[in-house]
Amino acid sequence: MDNANDPNIWFDKEGNCNYCNDDYTYIQSESNVNIKKPESLTRLITKIKEDGATKKYDCVVGVSGGLDSAYLVYKLVKLGVRPIAVHFDNGWNSEAATQNIETLLKKLNVDLYTYVCDWEEFKDLQMSFLKAGVVDIELVTDHAISATMYDAAKKFNTKYIFQGHNQSSEFILPEAWIHWKNDALNIKSIHKKYGSVSLKTLPLLTFFKEYYHLKYRKTNYIYLLDYIDYNKKEAELILKEEFGWKNYGAKHNESIFTRFYQNYILPKKFNIDKRKAHLSSLICSNQITREEALEELKTRCWETDETKQDKAYVLKKLGVSETIFDAWMEETPVSHLDFASYLTRHNQIITALKKLIGKR
Q: Is-above-0.85 flag for pTM?
């Protein structure tokens, strides 16, 4: 990590940044040590199986085609859990991702539920974020995935949602590089100013909807990979040998837009290279060395042939000219908080919830 576009980073006298120190502290923490005890995983799986005994599925599990979610499905099946895989299709899946998902689920005999968002609607929303100049363009996809998972849990009558997010490879991510993913108000505010297509099919997770799922349905988000000593290289080897799983080259590259966003938009417009965060997490969990990470960072990802091809593909699919897009890249970034946000209305919402609960 370095201090590029991050006002919150600082370094100790040994040259270690606060994020890495926090990661090392977490790894040694009592909560992390306890959750990795075999009995913790046994209790969790036993409870899930008991609750799902009379149902078709024990849980829902998010799948993107990426390594983490693919290995998660594999691990759940090996543990005897009966999941239904849930995928949010925003129109940007790579062919390799689609093939990886289909092959994995077929061989594991896992059903798939795919929610497809209207393309014109989603395109208009992404264009709104590009025009707005905010940093977290992937907020729209990440938010919709969460909303889809909650909706699927209700649809398939389960309280358990499994996601591939894990601390060993994703602990480090500066707040300045992202926005709060559950901020439906921010999404609607940005789209209201710059969009033109009504949001009819986009899954949204409002503050009250999330409260309903967490407090009334007692829905649980579970990160199974944190219960085990998850190693990405070992997981990839298993998936390749058993399912012919194809590597995408980097984290989250299973989506064409996400790949372009991370490899081009972030470094060019915001001076952010997310590889630094991803690789730093892997260094802290002893999965790669610092020297290996520095070697990977020598590649200027925004200048590769693949990124040039992605740029042409993305602009054509979005229907925007290179001249207009390049002009957006040169504009000064805008804060998400320049638009309406749940983060700035938090106290008002809490007051409203207390009044609502008091009337029950």
A: yes
